[in-house]
Every structure is written in structure tokens, then in C-alpha cells.
Amino acid sequence: MPCWIVTFEDSDGVSALRTDPARRAAHIDFVRACPGLQIGGPLALTPMQDFPGAIWTVEAETRQDVMRLIQRDPYFVAGLRRPVIRRETEEDPLVRLLR
Q1: Does the first or last residue of the chain, that is N or C, have fewer Cβ atoms within 10 Å of its Cβ?
Q2: pLDDT band for position 94 (50/70/90)?
């Protein structure tokens, strides 16, 4: 099955979503229930920085399947999180970093 790399560029409004305990619990439950979501986590450029985004690796047949998964995530709110979806290739430097 194809593997996809998703990076999220977050706007300032996502910080409020992350600090809401109910939404955070729903996000964690969502992530744990997704067998195609292999790796997921926040991105930070410096220690103790508020996260400017996140990264996932996802096994899915199509880009549309990946987008449907993203749209079900309680942390995804249109306009606050912009996903960038790329199909994994061996030439991709991000793929080499993740392995």
C-alpha cells in the first residue's frame, strides 16, 4: 500500500485547540484508532517552542483517502491547519530522515 507524508502548517488558532482537554483526548483516541497512521507528532523548530505544525506518515491507497483521514481528526479545523500531502518516494529527503 502506498505511504504518504503529511506535514501540517498550523495557524495561531491551533494552539487553542491543542489546549482544550476534551479535543486533545478526542485527537489521541482518533490517532490510536487509525491503523493507517504510522507515525504522527508535533513539529518544533526549537526546544519549548509552541508547535508550528505536525507530521504524519500514512498508509492509504489514494491522496483522497489521506485527506478524508485528516478531515476526521479533531485537531483539523479548516482554515487553521493546512495539510501538505506528498507520496513517499525513496528520493525524498524527508523519507530518508524518517527511516
Answers
A1: C
A2: low
